Amino acid sequence: MNIHAVILAGGSGTRLWPLSRDLHPKQFLRLVNQDTLLQATAKRLCGLGIQSILTICNEQHRFFVAEQLRQIDRPGPIILEPVARNTAPAIALAALATEDDSVLMVVPADHVIEHEAAFTRTVTSAMPLAASGKLVTFGVVPVEANTEYGYVKRGDSQGAGFAVDRFVEKPAMEEAEVYVKSGQYYWNSGMFLFKASRYLEALREHRPDIYAAAESAMTKTTADFDFVRIDAAAFEACPSESVDYAVMENTPDAVVVPMDAGWNDIGSWASLWAVCKKDPGGNALDGDVIVRDSTNSYVRTDERLVAAISVDNLVIVDTKDALLVADKDRVQEVRLIVQRLKSAHRPEWESHREVYRPWGKYDCIDRGERYQVKRICVNPGARLSVQMHYHRAEHWIIVAGTARVTKGEETFLLCENESTFIPAGVRHALENPGKVNLELIEVQSGCYLGEDDIVRFEDVYGRVTAV
Are 37 and 72 in contact (CB under 8 A)? Predict the structure, then answer.
């Protein structure tokens, strides 16, 4: 039996703001251990004896996916969604990209599974059901009444699972308590197992409009490094729908297999606190943190020291450009803060001060009316585009490593403690020819310092170039 993993990495949730942002969502963050959630997901799937990993993400996150999978030696095709259309169309793209008789194990990229052996056993037990044509969803055995999850009610026994009686939206607390006490309901995990051909057959029957749009989008694909680009116009015409609504609630072949593996969707700071290691006071601490007489809190800092005295049940998260202090019981209201930031057109809802690019990253460490200072790190072998700016000049000072600089018609090397000046209007490029990171300080000066004042002439990463 050919088994292919499908990782859905297209989310851009902000429930873990200020750490998770629209351009740097939680699946690309290291939250529980040294792996990002995406990396942990890919490693977990390899215990199932899969043939390949196919990842689906949106265009703006493509380099996160490629780089993080490269770091753990889990390469594979990456299908790029030009627009978000929810899970039913995304899974259709994956099914159309694989062999008809293949079994697809579909998982979100941003969940935590504490007991991977139990996860592997549960999925393996469901394989015969998928091979026989059933569409399997995995229902998490609930440990408490929770209003943040949807539920799946089981029916008659079928193999390692049960026929799906019905799906239930997020309930009120009173209903959730009844569900859990009954023993007949599971949390809806968003993980699925089925044949590619069987999923497409069910989608064609129940949502032919989604099937037709996905099929049309996959008829005109182009390869770009590890990326598979689909027909944007065809996919934009596709309805947005979840796989639950489009298929699982309509097919008579839906089966739920119980899973008890320490699952957590990390949907809030309270959820993250629940899975983190804690000190004797019940505090989960990450970074340069000192606490005194404090209990049951989550405290994290990216850089500077954070000290907390006599606090209880708080979430304190300090990033380079934002600080969150919240009651742990009200962290779901973070989304309201994000909405206010977005309405006010503030950048903090969307991106961090430290910005990742396919060639490395930069951090804006100071800014004034006519100047900006960045700390830039270029990965070994990487290079920035050949570009120029109309409104700003740039001074580059090499801090570590070696830079190959193109300035106008000149190309030369710069080493540690050397510098150069790039006047406005001059074509230039920067490359790291070495085997260690290139670090430099860039001082920009001019009347306009926006990132959109970049005219690209050549770019190895396929970004927009000048005409």
Answer: no
